[in-house]
Design a protein that fits this description.
Blueprint: H1 3-32, E1 39-46, H2 53-74, E2 80-87, H3 92-104, E3 110-112, H4 117-130, E4 133-136, E5 151-153, H5 158-173, E6 177-183, H6 187-203, E7 206-213, H7 222-231, E8 235-239, H8 245-254, E9 261-263, H9 268-274, E10 282-285, H10 296-307, H11 313-331, H12 337-345, E11 350-352, E12 355-359, E13 365-366, E14 370-375, E15 378-381
Parallel strand pairs: 1-2, 1-3, 3-4, 4-5, 6-7, 6-8, 8-9
Antiparallel strand pairs: 10-14, 11-12, 12-13, 14-15
Helix pairs in contact: 2-11, 3-4, 5-6, 8-9, 11-12
Length: about 375
Amino acid sequence: MNIRNISTMTIAFTIITIFVGLSGCERIQQIVEPTPSEEIAIGVVLTQTGRNATAFGKYVEQAFELALNEINDSQLAGLNLKFITVDDQGTVEGAIEAYNKLIKEDGVSVILGPTTSSATKQTFPIAKEYQIVAISPTSAARGLSAISDFTFRVALTTDILVPNGVEATHAKLNYQNVATLYDETDDFSTDGDKAVQEELIATGVIILGTETFRGGETTDFTEQLTRIKALNPDAIFVSSLPGEKPEILRKGHELGISAPFIIRTLTDADVEAAGEAAEGAITFVGWGSAVDTPGNQEFIEKYTTTYNTAPNNYAARAYATLHILAKAIGTAESHNAADIRDALANISDFDTILGKFSFDENGDAIYEPKILIVKNGKLELF
């Protein structure tokens, strides 16, 4: 073999070696720097304006944002989520319009919201019609998740909270005669009062009387509470959205009512707004700042530091909702609605700030309910 042939072979071998080396470098670079994950659009229906925007709309929005940043920053399961947010303006009609826009114009396969049971009752059938996943973080009236196998809720529903709450409070307070007060314009409140009365009757408690009001319209509860006071009840059960709770407590205190108020989903903000009138009030909830569930204290600290205000029940459920959804998307076979639905349905004993979380066969949440009481201006475990 002459020198020319040897040189030619040497050059060829060198070129091959360089090529293979470069290819290896490219493969290593791909491992070190993975291809960016697919961006997944999530529709969000929020109450940014109108009734309850301040009471819970802003808390839900902030909690969603906090959870979104955590999930995207951690690249949990390679997820990259983005929100397409629509304001429902605090109305059922606005929620319906928001759903139609997100589905027909934006083409999302998952929607978070709405927040109220009244709006959820009207929008979940739209999710059923278009076969998209819908998750309400806060609505709690009975029977709504069963509308479709694509619909889910993260709040503990009335049929879980009320029986548990009545059993525990009756055992400790031994009330025999009670009165109830509820918002006749709201599905959560009407369903809540009905469930309370059913459970009280089953327990042998006498319902002396029931008063109603119109949420968003009634601002003075003097007449209703004066009539209730005259009945001399052992306890007063209230079913209401956030806006009216502090004023009900204040007016009851002003009228000298000594019977304890038992109110669903009372928050720290409600307690602060009601002041000393909230002392002794009891609430049935799914979350509380005093609860030692996985990551709860870290969530409270991070939320408070980020938004310069403490989170409430609505914030906690919204925060947990997005982490539950991310878990499902991360384990789903694909990102289409049917596969995400199946993954959600299979979630069981997932650690959240609400506790060990699962969905039942209807898409309703399962975790441990909590009962809190206001002591020295703070909500504590009952």
